[in-house]
Amino acid sequence: MRTPSNTWEDSGREYGDDITEAGTGDRPASDSYSLVVTPDMSGHRLDYAVSRELGISRAYAQNLIKSGLVKHTGDRRVKPSIKVEDGEIYDIALPPPEKLDLEPEEVPFGVVYSDDDIIVVDKPAGVVVHPAPGHFHGTLVHGLLYRFPGFGNMNGVMRPGIVHRLDATTSGLMVVARNGRAMEKLYVEFKSRRVEKTYLFLCHGTPKDARARIDLPIGRDAGGKKMTVREDGRASVTDYEIIWSNSEYSFGRCVIHTGRTHQIRVHMKAIGCPLVGDSLYASSRNNPFTGNRVFLHSWRLAFTHPTSGKRVSYSSFIPGDLANLLTRLRRPLATTLNQRGSF
After folding, report:
1. pTM of the full predicted structure?
2. Is 115 among the residues known to form the active site?
3. Which of 167, 209, 215, 321 does the annotation list as catalytic?
4. How far apart are CA 49 and CA 45, in angstroms?
5. How far is CA 208 from the centre of its chain?
6. pLDDT tens, position by position, 8-59
């Protein structure tokens, strides 16, 4: 249990939830808390208690404690590892959140759903998710800051809560957190592999099995520029099912149970059926697309909502460039795919 030592108008929501006019802020500008340990928290580490109660990451909670911003009643400094006991009171001082040093930009992307805690984004191919060398403008983060300017405190920074990513060459659904509490819970969802991620793909050739699991570890190749299957790589699991195929191509859907870099692209190459348009893993194959585009679409996303606790599921229309290619290959299939979320 926690109580604010500063006073402000009660919005009817639990302290720390969204209360600004835009409905997307996380806390007042100046934060001071009294954390009262309840029986269910007794025996846990202090960093865990602070993290759970404030909806911040364990790492950020540890930084606060080590910086002397979390103190036991009586002004006694504490360590992240101490075990808290029922009835103890800890004073927490949160520094004002920093602003992300990025200028909002108008960037094209769709919004399938949004509320005070999450945004389900439909990202077009060609849009990079997060700023990185070579991509300091026009990213999804820039676009989110432009369209939703009131993001909350994400571990000390006012920014969108990016909890997973899609390659620039891939289109489709992503979920973004709007405040620290939602971000922390979504992180747990992804880490615990409770998020269902279904993709549509078109590959060269026809896999030996129409439906199978690819369980092959993935790591960096010797050159470090791309990923590959290797014995000392990280565990990676992909289930796929072929829906239609001809002499040249196969169209299917897959569910990934891990989230490795380029996982689907590497796994499909490993079974001899690289994805259409993939200039990195299928450079010698015919590419029907102009520009940097892979036939891979994040089609369905299902997870537990961080606030309601209910299981939610969202789906996305297949983009026009992919649908047009399917139309040329097999018209009836493309017509069926115009219905969202069904075949």
Report:
1. 0.72
2. no
3. 167
4. 6
5. 32
6. 222 222 222 222 222 223 333 346 778 888 888 889 999 888 877 776 778 8
